[in-house]
């Protein structure tokens, strides 16, 4: 189908839940993707951080294909070698003790919320179930994770929202401690607020928050759905902050393009969720686990994380030298570009004309390129971005 036909059928049969750009992607390799008319784009978005190894990585495709030819799904009522092996590796790489495998970041955060509340109920009884999150945060689109999200714009239409959440300004420990009364069981944070405009938290704030939570036996949940699996130049972002959380959530780049999420917890919390207290039909299916295993092989290979940091530094330096750039912020290959002129949406639309796919997050352009992007692909994408910014 041509683009016009696709758009007509989309408008006729799909719920209009996305503000789509006028492109239908059809085939890709590495960080380069083609639309149905054969136009080529360099992708600085990787499917919102999902295609961590780019498009159609040969080894990833072979791992997925081989597993699909053997066993595509088995109920979680039975043991799974793929799940067990993936869980072991995730624990070893993260310093966590146990894992629950699911299908998405929102599901991973739902598990984290349930785990925190059940731990508090088991330990202290009823009434200690509030979770503090940060203003400008984003934790998912289910009714509960929308309630956890600290942005008022999301708290509409779907009433009643799940109770038990309160919000504090990012970086303000005094404001948080003032609300951390006897009703609070957990604090949930993103170390880089992605959908909130690519805003990293300060190191000292995070370390002080970790100490406070330990003193009060308040669980610290770190949402690494967007920052995790090598995105910022370490396996998880908290490893650059010098802390070990109680609970970590992961998704997006973990499957390299297939849906898989993970909720990881410290060993002391490993027995909190017992049989029947949580579950999933598709979570941790053999194909998604095979994909994730291959991603882990690649991102943990010698020199890979260093290359992510180097590429992130190269992109940041090049963009900071471009016209109408007010600031560039982020970690590794998770960058936000604040513009001094024009809007992020207008710039992203103009980038498509230049053969560049780029994301937005509030007022900034957001970069989440495939971790495997080449220097040549970066230079092509940067050239297109420069042309757009020069024209603002």
- Rounded mean pLDDT score: 98
CA distance, first residue to last residue: 34 Å
Task: Determine Rg (CA atoms, Å).
Answer: 21 Å
Q: Secondary-structure element order, as H and E? A: HEEEHHHEHEHEHEEEHEHEEHHEEHEEEH
Helix tally? 13
Stretches where pLDDT is under 50 for at least 5 consecutive residues are none
Strand order of the largest sheet: 4-12-11-10-7-5-6
How would a textbook summarize the main sheet? Answer: 7 strands, mixed
Please give the number of β-strands. Answer: 17
Label the structural class.
alpha/beta
Helical proportion, percent range:
25-40%
Q: How large is the share of residues in beta strands?
A: 15-25%
Assign an overall shape: globular
Key terms for this structure?
single chain; 392 residues; alpha/beta; 17 strands; globular
What does this structure look like?
- Strand 16 (359-361) and strand 17 (364-367) form a beta hairpin.
- This protein is α/β, with parallel strands linked by helices.
- A 7-stranded mixed beta sheet has the order 4-12-11-10-7-5-6, sandwiched between helices.
- The chain is globular, with a radius of gyration of 21 Å.
- The protein has 13 helices and 17 strands.
In short:
With 392 residues, the protein is of the alpha/beta class.
